[in-house]
Amino acid sequence: MKELFLQIFAWWHRQTLGTRVFTARKGERVGEDEFGNVYYRAKNVPPLGERRWVIYNGTAEPSHIPPGWHGWIHHRTDVSPADGDYRPREWEQTWQPNMTGTAAAYRPPGSAATITKRPAATGDYDAWSPDA
Question: Which of 52, 99, 107, 115 shows a CA-CA span of 20 to 30 A to 60?
Answer without folding.
Answer: 107
